[in-house]
Design goal:
It is a single chain. By secondary structure, the chain is mainly beta. The protein contains 1 helix and 15 strands. It has a 4-stranded antiparallel sheet, with no helix packed on it. The chain has a 3-stranded antiparallel sheet with strand order 13-15-14, with no helix packed on it. A hairpin with a 2-residue loop joins strand 5 and strand 6. The radius of gyration is 24 Å and the shape is elongated.
Length: about 250
């Protein structure tokens, strides 16, 4: 091959590579610039919520199209999507969130930036930020959850979820001191649960929320009807309305 022919081939290859349109696959939703909870990644009127920078709306000052002002939160009001994303895989969620139980969630350090374990079932004193709740995932960790929809709706996910807003008899939150977020695994109505569950099971009247009942071995129960995917209900003493103690499906 002559020198001039080689030059023509190389030039054609360069033009082909330069002029070809880039291959672009499906994109993850845009939830805002990724950020680390508690740091200063977000600038101006943006705040880090569930690991994404979101606009603030102090005094219900207005939010971008497709979002609403979530309401009182710490350190100030923030904007949230009109409807939270229901996910089946992590690619359905904004980066760096992951799909956890059907919700776009994020792992976070403690609110003070430390790496000590958070405290389970401690409400607003669990050590996590107002957009996160302490859960067990190998060890106690803070899990950031998405904001509820404007209508209070949350994805049912794999085990159900309920909005942390106005569910108490006094109109208060399920977990006082946390933001208006979807609480994974909580329910107040059967509609908070996926189709594989037959009810929102409450073990006590002292709490305004329960957990979706799947009737499996080891699930709590008051009657055999609560154990529709297992055997009998054993060890129950009374029922919910009379302050009884639940038993176990087995």
């Amino acid at each position: 091959m002559g020198r001039s022919a080689l030059i023509l081939i190389l030039a054609a290859a360069a033009c082909s590579s330069k002029d070809a349109p880039p291959v672009i696959g499906p994109q993850r939703p845009d939830g805002g610039t990724p950020c680390q909870a508690g740091d200063s990644t977000c600038r101006g009127n943006l705040r880090c919520v569930n690991r994404n920078c979101v606009p603030t709306c102090p005094g219900d000052a207005g939010c971008p199209s497709g979002s609403y002002c979530e309401g009182p939160a710490y350190p100030e009001d923030v904007c949230a999507p009109l409807s939270p994303i229901a996910c089946a895989k992590t690619f359905d969620c904004p980066d760096p969130q992951t799909c956890f139980g059907g919700l776009c969630a994020s792992g976070q350090p403690r609110a003070d930036g430390g790496y000590q374990l958070c405290v389970l079932n401690a409400g607003a004193d669990d050590g996590c930020g107002p957009d996160a709740v302490c859960i067990v995932q190998g060890q106690n960790v803070c899990a950031g959850y998405p904001a509820c929809g404007q209508d209070g709706g949350c994805p049912q996910g794999d085990i159900g979820s309920a909005c942390n807003d106005g569910k108490n008899p006094d109109g208060g939150q399920l977990i006082p001191g946390k933001m208006r977020i979807c609480l994974l695994g909580f329910c107040t109505l059967p509609s908070d649960c996926p189709p594989t569950s037959n009810a929102c099971f409450r073990a006590t009247l002292r709490k305004p929320y329960g957990y979706c009942n799947f009737g499996l071995t080891g699930s709590q129960c008051f009657t055999k009807a609560d154990c529709f995917n297992s055997g009998a209900c054993t060890g129950a003493d009374g029922g919910l309305e009379d302050g009884g103690t639940p038993g176990t499906c087995g």
